[in-house]
Fold this sequence. Notes:
The chain is an alpha/beta fold and about 325 residues long.
Amino acid sequence: VNLESNLEDRYPGADVDGIEVAMGGGRRHFLPKDAAFNSADAVSSIEGDRTDGRDLTAEWSTTYPNGVYVTDQAGFDAIDTESTERVLGLFNESHMQYEADRANDIAGEPSIAEMTEKAIDILDNNEKGFFLMVESGRIDHAHHAGNAAGALEDTLAFAEAVQAAVDNTNPDETLILVTADHSHVFTIAGYPKRGNPILGKVVPVGGTEPTLASDGMPYTTVGYTNGRGFMDLGAETDSDAGYNEAISAGRHDTSGIDTTTPGYHQEALVPMSSETHAGEDITLHATGPGAQLAQGVIEQNLIFQIIGRSLNLLAD
Length: 316
């Protein structure tokens, strides 16, 4: 809410126009800790958690009277992208739903691809161009919960968002960067035959039955080095449901278990309350003007330089 004034105070002479589009979850952080400010789809008796009494959604609407504040799918769908100048979309009290759970949302929430397309349709009204950052944060959350199905489902949703960005921009004048901020202790083990389900048990080339490890039990293609470990929650699509179960690291006999269900949480070696990040280098993919700079092994701060040059904010 105070972004413009704070930046202008910090940098004398600057004329900041603020953020045009912001969408996601976390509505509780914008609202007072008072049931009177609950949204229509609040799941807690008191949705907000601010103790300073400020309603930042109301302050934003006052600061930007031409802006549109939306909290559900209907409000999102009603946005006129040709005439709307600013949008604040807070679609969930806490995190956005996992992609596999999105249809269960009380008031409905847009997909990450839908938000990407809508944001571009609003921002491209500026002839000077725009910067848009899109994060599929629930991939990370599902991995922390040790649920590969959830992480991969949200990865597919993110891929659709990348495609939406490609489909709705001009490749001759738009730089698109796709990367991550870290890896996870998520592994692929061998040797499954070609076409074996990624979430399934390892079946050898030419075989029909799972390969047995030295302990006489089958094992899955993917697993985690640490985390909460094995859980068979069946059709459960909420990756976080595993936090209600006891930590169960180590080997388990999965002979009679369908490991491809959404609620299956992979085995983990080291018992921990939550799976951790790892230390591998991550990849950076790019297309459009300046994409040639995203090659080989580079320092992460170079990404800032690539973006800055694309926006003509930095000298060569």
